[in-house]
Amino acid sequence: xxxxxxxxxxxxxxxxxxxxxxxxxxxxxxxxDLEAFNTLVLMHQDRVYNLAYRLLGDPSSAADAAQDxxxxxxxxxxxxxxxxxxxxxxxxxxxxxxxxxxxQRRRPALPFTHLSSAADEEREFDLPAPEDGPEAxxxxxxxxxxxxxxxxxxxxxxxxxxxxxxxxxxxDKEIAAIMRSSLGTVKSRLSRxxxxxxRSLTGAQVTV
Length: 208
What we know:
By secondary structure, the protein is mostly helical. The chain has a single domain (7-124, 136-203), classed as Rna Polymerase Sigma Factor, Chain: A (Orthogonal Bundle). The protein contains nine helices and no strands. α1 (12-30) crosses α2 (34-56).
């Protein structure tokens, strides 16, 4: 399973500079600077798409959800004042995905249309390491696809906390803020989600 880069790999000074730079871009975007907002899109689009894909399990639907989330973010950027811009953006994409999942449940006879291109397929999975050959890359993609199938079986609330924690690498506190839930609720959902994934993967004899 893919994990977010551990921020401790970066120096504290680097993280402060990156945060300060983003804060300036956010201020410009709030003032109506379209170029600044487009910069924010470029900074966050891969992680937003990846979160949407992990929640929805379909590349075409994830792309639509990411686009909708950025449109909503653009319309409401002036309502963002302080805190983590990424967390605010994750809350938006999570809500968009929840709406898509509710629509999916209301219309179960209409499956998603798979219109993924080669570019979509590359974005669904981790980029290969330099030493990965074609066979290793294929195995990584097959494993990622299989893991996604098991993630898709989780209830939407458990799926969300699992993806935010074990794929996006967010803390329980950050997840609670994004989902507007108590810390105890997040911990409980995450524990149940991980237990279900362990049972599911063990039954399928999948090793990660």
